[in-house]
């Protein structure tokens, strides 16, 4: 063996190998409770996560409960050909029956939202959320003026309402909690 081959083998063996836990998937899907998220130049800690799926199929929607001090927001990520991300605020309101959910909502008398779709899903939760794992959830998505969206979720007698705007996925940065 020549001296040049020996030197090149030594140099190749000293190169650092990338860690095996580098990227294990898209951060929009694999983020966990305790990770840090930077959205619109504000940092949040993920305090809860809800994963939505159809039985026997891969998850298609994620809801991250984001906390910054006393402020709690929700980042909804919908998986399709691309990722649709929505940063939402929780809204107080009251409905009693999921059969009474209208196709058109009027919010504070000045904004009207129209029903885009609704579906039944199964939830898997971790951390602090409004839902339980393994139960069915009905999910409604409404669209309104100026790229505003309204989300309504129901599980076992409890409604959760959110209003938010579309946020480009490339503006959301995750820092993993190791």
Query: How do the strands of the widest beta sheet line up side by side?
Result: 2-3-4-5-10-9-8-7
Distance between the termini: 44 Å
Question: Uncertain segments of ≥5 residues (pLDDT<50)?
Answer: none
Mean pLDDT: 87
The radius of gyration computed from the alpha-carbon positions, rounded to a whole number of angstroms, is: 21 Å
Number of contiguous helices: 2
Helix and strand content put the structural class at mainly beta
Hey, roughly how much beta strand do the residues contain? over 45%
Largest sheet: 8 strands, antiparallel, barrel
Shape estimate: elongated
Which H/E pattern describes the elements? HHEEEEEEEEEEE
If you had to describe this structure to a student in words, what would you say it looks like?
This protein has 178 residues and is mainly β. 9% of the residues lie in helices and 52% in strands. It has two helices and eleven strands. Strands 2-3-4-5-10-9-8-7 form an eight-stranded antiparallel β-barrel. A hairpin with a 3-residue loop joins strand 6 (104-107) and strand 7.
């Amino acid at each position: 063996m020549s001296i040049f081959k020996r030197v090149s083998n030594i140099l190749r063996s000293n190169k650092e190998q990338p860690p095996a836990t580098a990227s294990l998937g898209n951060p929009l899907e694999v983020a966990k409770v305790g990770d840090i998220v930077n959205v619109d130049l504000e940092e949040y800690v993920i305090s809860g996560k809800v994963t939505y799926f159809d039985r026997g199929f891969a998850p298609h929607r994620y809801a991250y409960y984001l906390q910054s001090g006393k402020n709690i927001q929700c980042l909804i990520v919908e998986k399709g050909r691309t990722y649709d991300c929505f940063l939402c605020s929780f809204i107080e309101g009251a409905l009693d029956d999921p059969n009474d959910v209208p196709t058109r909502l009027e919010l504070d008398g000045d904004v009207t939202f129209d029903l885009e779709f609704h579906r039944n899903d199964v939830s898997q939760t971790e951390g602090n959320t409004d839902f339980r794992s393994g139960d069915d959830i009905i999910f409604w998505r409404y669209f309104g003026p100026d790229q505003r969206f309204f989300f309504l979720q129901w599980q076992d007698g409890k409604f959760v309402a959110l209003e938010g705007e579309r946020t480009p996925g490339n503006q959301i940065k995750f820092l993993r909690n190791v």
